[in-house]
Design brief:
single chain; about 280 residues; alpha+beta; 8-stranded antiparallel sheet; 5-stranded antiparallel sheet; 7 helices; 15 strands; about 25% helix
Length: about 280
């Protein structure tokens, strides 16, 4: 009887094993069609798309679809690509993902005096203009201004004002911006920084005249937008971003010229000790 029970249990076990091996496996992520994955990825920001591309091979292939990255590129990407890419590069033979990756890197233009890139998350245009790209009154007279090499600037150089009565710095740029609102800032510092024994020190001995009257910041565009603000420069020894103004872009694929300036032209007193690094244009 014991043998009969053992035989019966063995038969049931074999039957269960046979039933289990013949059942279909559960569907996984690898079974999702690539077209569906690509459509899903369009709803994510570029950094998240790159993370999801590591899930498996299907996600990796789907994440490279041109229509995904074209939706992330600004409408002005062809204009930007022509400015920043090598003349030997043909954007018609590049994938949209390759174009996006190239434009997201800091790209020097106009002889290395400006830097343009796309924000990795929003795909909006950002721009830096060095002090050497601007018109500075008296810059050629070393009694007033000097260019100083420094690793505190992305352009490795800043303009330093020793002393002057008429202080005026003007910047201009013409570029195709995507639709949106943009802000313009000056990056300035009172005092001249240097390193001693490996530590940063800032000499403020020549800083004077900025607490008497405010600096005037002005912004204008080729389509008639204008703004003016005034403020005192403060916080000696620290880099600060001073807001010049905002402008709106309503017509894409059309160049817009932006002109901005800072000025303190009250000739009743001298001003000195000012460092001008760059101007920064970014989405508001």
């Amino acid at each position: 009887m014991g043998a009969a029970v053992s035989s019966a249990n063995s038969d049931q076990g074999d039957a269960g094993s046979s039933s289990s091996s013949s059942s279909p496996s559960s569907p996984g992520l690898g079974d999702i069609p690539e077209s569906c994955i690509s459509s899903l990825l369009m709803n994510f920001d570029p950094p998240d798309i790159c993370k999801l591309a590591r899930v498996n091979r299907a996600f990796h292939r789907a994440s490279s679809a041109d229509f995904i990255w074209e939706s992330k590129l600004p409408s002005t990407y062809k204009f930007l690509a022509q400015k920043v890419l090598s003349p030997h590069c043909n954007i018609e033979t590049m994938t949209k993902k390759e174009i996006y990756a190239q434009l997201c890197r800091p790209n020097l233009i106009d002889g290395g005096t400006k830097e343009v890139w796309l924000d990795k998350c929003s795909g909006q245009v950002c721009l830096l203009l060095s002090s050497k790209s601007m018109k500075i009154t008296g810059i050629d007279d070393r009694r007033y201004w000097n260019y100083i090499p420094t690793d505190e600037s992305r352009f490795q150089s800043i303009a330093y004002l020793r002393q002057m009565w008429w202080v005026e710095v003007v910047g201009e740029v013409e570029l195709e911006f995507p639709i949106g609102t943009y802000s313009v800032f000056f990056r300035l510092q009172l005092g001249k920084a240097s390193k001693k024994l490996g530590r940063r020190v800032c000499n403020v001995a020549q800083v004077h005249g900025w607490d008497i009257k405010p600096v005037r910041f002005q912004l204008s565009t080729s389509d008639g937008q204008k703004s003016t603000t005034e403020c005192f420069l403060n916080s000696p020894g620290e880099w600060a971003h001073y807001h010049v103004g905002d402008f709106e872009v309503e017509s894409p694929n059309k160049p817009i010229k932006i002109k901005f300036s800072l000025a303190q032209i009250d000739c009743t007193h001298t001003k000195g000790g000012l460092c001008v690094d760059c101007a920064f244009i970014c989405p508001k």
